[in-house]
Amino acid sequence: MTTENQDTPQTGLRSVHAGLNYRTSADNFERTIAELPEDQQETLRWWYFHGKENNLSLAKLAGLAGISSSTFSLIFAGKYNAGLDKMCDSLAKARMTLSERVENPDFIMTALAKRMFAVFDRARALQTVSILWGVMGVGKTVVAKEYRRRNNHGRTIYIRCGAGMAFGQFVNHLAKAMGVTSKNRGQHEIRDKIISLLRAGQRLLIVDELHQIFLTTRTDTAVKIAEFLRECHDESDCGLVLIGTEVVKRELFTGAHKEALEQLVDRGTLQIPLPPKPTKQDIRAFFSHFNLQEPGENHADARRIVSDILTTSGLRKLTLHLKDGKAAATKAGETYHWGHFVQAFEDLQSLSK
What is the DSSP string of 119-138? Predict the structure, then answer.
């Protein structure tokens, strides 16, 4: 159990119960650092959520930072009094070093990714609402998750709407993603905690698969979720980006309940249809990622298969087949070439016959 935080003048932090450490809930942690300078808040927030989101033990987190686990425990509990300014400077440098080392080798920066990253950055910086929609398979979710990975640690909250979610389930789902403890708390208290956390640290909330609330829930549930998201933005001034298929566009702008949703739409300062097909430059970037050149005249089968996949499914499906070909080449101990891609594709096709 936690106790109410009391001011601790010696450190400028707020103290919490002596038994609390790295397991402190996110809302309690935010209260702990609330009186610190913004740069120190940002540094400590990054380390706290880096450990939380990657399920790291306090010892493992401390090892990455180059300090002792007991020091981190004192910092997170608001009880460190051995020179917090100097410690935060050291943690900021360690954060930069760690961030430079952590890359996602599977992510490819496409024109779509650059465009979505710009939308996310703008929504966070200006605390606005953006609504994005596009066909399935173009890479919306992959891009959103990568942005979260690069700009996370308490600053970016990413959630996906699940099929058939009731309103209470959605609220609890968001609370869990934000590190808000929902046990023994009523729905109104959980909502207050969510909004309070979104208000701290210039946060961005990304809600993916928004079309699910319109396709798989009751109409009144979809409207309640949409209105709750509007309230989150209005009361916290967080950035908010909503992502889905063209169902989102239809329901928000021309659907039967557009009047009930118009307040959310009105706050969407950016309403962007995403391109249904990747650019040629993006396609070449995917080929290059697998050390392949664009298939030429001597790879007619590969060109046909690639064209069919992009026409019917998109980059997501193409990536899976490129990985299948890569696996076949690796198994054979050979350098990956288009012959592996074609053979792996044909092997899969034969299984469906």
Answer: HHHHHHHHT-EEEEE--TTS
